[in-house]
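Inverse folding, one chain.
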């Protein structure tokens, strides 16, 4: 059950991260695609984990098992993209341990920033989500744009898409927890 739950949450997280990053890159031509991708993955992985933790509250073992996999989403996805780039360029040096560690350190800092915005095991409500996304918008926006991150976020209407993802994740995890609690014990 936990494998299916993590897979479900991960697929949803990658889908909504691509949706958010794509919308941002279409709207703001000068945005840095790598920065947008990394910040978006880190934000989405953190809020997805928080929604999953809240949904799995009645199944603590499941929540504990899901946490490492959901926390590692930005790192795993970055390695996947690096693998594709290695094949495309026929360049194995892209997997150099020093380069991988530098990317991991950068992703860890970004992820820790978002972890500080959302309480552990608490479902990210609308206000917390919008506040966190305003920080995200500020971090990925190039300087000297004519509007504020808050105005841009509202104009682009991205919070409802992430909020819908979180509600689906939370509901799926609650269902998984109920299913696991009502299952007969394994002999």
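Residues assigned per position:
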């Amino acid at each position: 059950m936990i494998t299916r739950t993590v897979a479900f949450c991960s697929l949803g997280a990658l889908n909504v991260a691509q949706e958010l990053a794509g919308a941002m890159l279409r709207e703001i031509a000068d945005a840095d695609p790598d920065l947008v991708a990394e910040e978006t993955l880190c934000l989405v992985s953190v809020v997805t984990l928080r929604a999953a933790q809240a949904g799995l509250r009645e199944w603590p073992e499941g929540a504990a098992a899901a946490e490492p996999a959901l926390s590692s989403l930005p790192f795993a996805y970055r390695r996947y993209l690096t693998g594709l780039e290695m094949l495309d360029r026929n360049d194995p040096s892209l997997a150099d341990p020093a380069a991988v560690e530098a990317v991991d350190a950068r992703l860890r800092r970004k992820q820790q920033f978002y972890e500080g915005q959302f309480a552990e095991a608490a479902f990210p409500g609308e206000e917390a989500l919008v506040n966190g996304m305003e920080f995200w918008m500020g971090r990925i926006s190039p300087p000297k744009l004519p509007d504020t991150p808050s105005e841009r976020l509202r104009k682009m209407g991205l919070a409802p898409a992430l909020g819908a993802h979180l509600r689906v994740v939370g509901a799926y995890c609650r269902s998984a927890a109920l299913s696991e609690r009502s299952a007969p014990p394994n002999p």
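The helical segments are 2-27, 33-55, 60-71, 73-89, 97-115, 126-140, 149-156, 159-182. The chain has a mean pLDDT of 93.
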